[in-house]
Every structure is written in structure tokens, then in C-alpha cells.
């Protein structure tokens, strides 16, 4: 997938992703990448479909559909859809979701309250009244699997389905560096101190606009003591005794699988 700026349209064919209130609209054949531009697709704060990428020789456009339009086919949540997509398609849908959230949440200028419009050159929402431009918001987050003598440390977040455990994660705070965020989050949520950190890879996580930076960490000291607010259970797990894990397209699962290799 090639990320495109919205000046770069040059492909012969185009496909469209339609989103409404952060959800993906499917056509009658259950396609989320649709061939026909949609006459009904009134935009919310957006004058035209937004070119977001190219896939092979096709240009891909995002069109946000006004909430008042009654969609006659299926509507799906992006996370549900991602479970059945290829890695490339996940990247594309992730980008579309993030941009659709941004378009929806920045229809008005954060500085003076006037209506915004798409910037002519950049991915920006521009305010004519005060000349302020708002760019797509990206929130850095850390996600970490701790490796200890009794296995890997996984936790149950209060928002998870019953029985699902995952890596610990949290937002980087203002003025904080990434490494400090890893140490702080783990200590706050489960009371464990960490030794050496190893950065592995990152993933854009569009629910709604996170950039997840994935780490493995060595256990240093402390007994598990969950915070009872975000995390209501945590434990050490060996490969032969795992709880229900997050889906394979998530960075959480990829980190877990990598961390488990040390115990096989
Ligand atoms: Zn303004």
C-alpha cells in the first residue's frame, strides 16, 4: 500500500471506503472496498471523497457519510472486519478509520469555533477565520509483555471479554518519554518493576487514533498487585497454560507470541 496525499490521484480505477459514525458500510455483496461512488454520501465537514492510498494500480478514497443517511446494507465495526482481512488490508482500513474519526471530530476549529474545510495541499482541516490548521491526531501508546521466571505477565482489563488476557498498555503522557511510560504503566497497573526493555515494533491502532509501540521487558522485582481500576486480574503464564488471547492481527498478540518463544 502506498500512502498518498490528496493531490496525487492518477490511477485508472478507484475504489471507495464509506464510513458512518466510525463504522464501515458494506455494499449488497458485502464488500467494504466499493467500486461505485455513492451519490448519497453527503460528507460531514468534507466536500469530496478524500484520496488516502493506492492499492496496486487503484486509488482508494474515503468518504464519510452523513449520519442522517439511512444505509440499506450491512454496517460493521472496523475491529470486527479486520479479523478477516490481510495485513495490507488491515493497514488500509486502519488508515481510513483514523482519518474518518479525525474528519468527524474536527469539523469545527478548536481555536475559534468556526467551520473547518479540507486543506488544499495537506491532510489538514483548515479554518479560514483564524488560519489555524488541525492535522490528524495520533496518540502514542506503549504496549509491553513482561518476561519473568514464571512465564509472561498478562492482564485482564476491565473492558475485555471474560477470560481474555493481554499485554499491558497505556498512553504516553505529556512530557514523558516512551521508556518512562513503559515503566510507569506496568508499575501503576500491576505493581511490578522492570529491568531491561527491548523495543520490537509498532502498529497503528485506529480505535480511535493510537500508535502502539511494542516492547518486551525483563522482570526485575515486585509481586503482582492489580490496580483494580483498569486491570482486575493479572498473572504469569507459560506456553502450555495460556488464557484466551487477543486476535492475531493485533500487536498485542504478536508480542505475546514472540515473548513465548523464550519458554519453548
Ligand atoms: Zn479558527
Description:
By secondary structure, this protein is α+β, with helices and mostly antiparallel strands. The protein folds into 3 domains: 104 residues, Nucleoside Triphosphate Pyrophosphohydrolase (Alpha-Beta Complex); 32 residues; 125 residues, Nucleoside Triphosphate Pyrophosphohydrolase, CATH 3.90.79. It is 18% helix and 33% strand. It has 4 helices and 15 strands. The strands form 3 sheets. It has a 6-stranded mixed beta sheet with strand order 1-4-5-2-3-6. The longest helix has 19 residues. The two termini are 35 Å apart.
Keywords:
six-stranded mixed β-sheet, alpha+beta, 264 residues, 18% helix, Nucleoside Triphosphate Pyrophosphohydrolase
Main β-sheet, spatial strand arrangement: 1-4-5-2-3-6
Which series of helices and strands comes N to C?
EEEEEEHHEEEEEEHEEEH
Report helical residue fraction: 10-25%
Architecture per CATH nomenclature, i.e. the level-2 architecture of the largest domain: Alpha-Beta Complex
General shape: globular
Estimated structural class: alpha+beta
Number of domains: 3
Provide a brief overview of the structure.
The protein is of the alpha+beta class and 264 residues long.
SSE diagram, text form:
Blueprint: E1 2-3, E2 13-20, E3 23-25, E4 50-55, E5 58-64, E6 75-76, H1 78-82, H2 87-105, E7 117-118, E8 125-126, E9 133-134, E10 139-148, E11 151-157, E12 168-171, H3 178-190, E13 193-205, E14 210-221, E15 231-237, H4 251-260
Parallel strand pairs: 2-5, 10-14
Antiparallel strand pairs: 1-4, 2-3, 3-6, 4-5, 7-8, 8-9, 10-11, 10-12, 11-15, 13-14
The structure holds zinc ion (ZN).
